[in-house]
Amino acid sequence: MSPQIQTITLTRPDDWHLHVRDGAAMRDVVPHTAAQFARAIIMPNLKPPVTTAQQALAYRERILQAVPEGVSFVPLMTLYLTDNLAPDEIARAHEAGVVALKLYPAGATTNSDAGVTDIRKTYATLEAMQKHGLKLLVHGEVTNADIDLFDREAVFIDRHLIPLRRDFPELKIVFEHITTREAAQYVAQADRFVAATITAHHLLFNRNAIFVGGLRPHYYCLPVLKREEHRQALVQAATSGSPKFFLGTDSAPHPAALKEHASGCAGCYTAHAAIEMYAEAFDAAGALDRLEGFASFHGPDFYGLPRNTGRIILQRQDWRSSVTVPFGEAELKPLRGGEVLPWRLMP
Ligand code: DOR
Ligand code: ZN
Prior knowledge:
With 347 residues, this protein is an alpha/beta fold. The chain has helices at residues 23-36, 53-65, 88-95, 123-132, 152-167, 181-189, 200-204, 228-238, 256-259, 274-284, 291-303, and strands at 7-11, 15-18, 39-42, 74-80, 100-103, 135-138, 173-175, 194-198, 245-247, 311-320, 325-327, 330-332, 340-345. It has eleven helices and 13 strands. Helix 4 links the parallel strand 5 (100-103) and strand 6.
């Protein structure tokens, strides 16, 4: 057996799917991401959602104010696609440096009430996006009550993604936080206009994690964790070296009290130890040599942005992550808070 790898040096990675919220709470979470990642795609599902270029620019400023002194971090902004987001707004968004729009099917997840009720209603806007090169980031789940929660991603591919790609063949689409073998296969076989992000928690856990020894609300996110065979398919995709798969944490902070609740919020907070958890997943698959492509190269290549030049170092070293983190007036409980993690990001 070859000796265990003890240290990994990576080109500074980016997070291609992140929630930071707003206000005082945001100031507690942005530093976690800025300590690890050079850039992050910022999700627009605020209340009210970010639907104009002007709102995105103002939100970007507030995020930058939450970045600690001396740390360099670039938020990449997105708009929230609604049934009536005017096609004119796309040119303004492009001008303002907005990189993408997020499609939430109405009712699919946290703060998605303003989401799209029928994709056909957005066609003029998608046309403008295709023209200006803005990406479409998709929460790929149907919302029909008659479709089993665990099947909603696979059904979305047939009902919505395939027609969408037929109608907009040159619109670049990121199938966000994929959770199933069907999604991984679909993306692997698709043309260069389609890619996918994969979270650390979907690489590390299957759906049993939600129920070990009692209901574990901090493992509840959407799309929900799936069976082991799906987790394995995601690990295979992420470690395959295919440029179609890249890192997107979907770190989604919520006050602990709203997750430990009769109707708990969906979202796992992983920003405190994101790259460490990805290293753990790649290590378990014997694929640490593929981590840099996934974490640092495939994302910027797909988005048409330069790769980062800085470096980070990860060391095989046990450390215990915090049980709670301040979150404005509240506190949040990070995924695996209080547990010993095997990889550590060096300062
Ligand atoms: O688990 C999730 N949390 N999934 C989403 O799609 C949204 C996110 C959030 O904003 O909390
Ligand atoms: Zn998300």
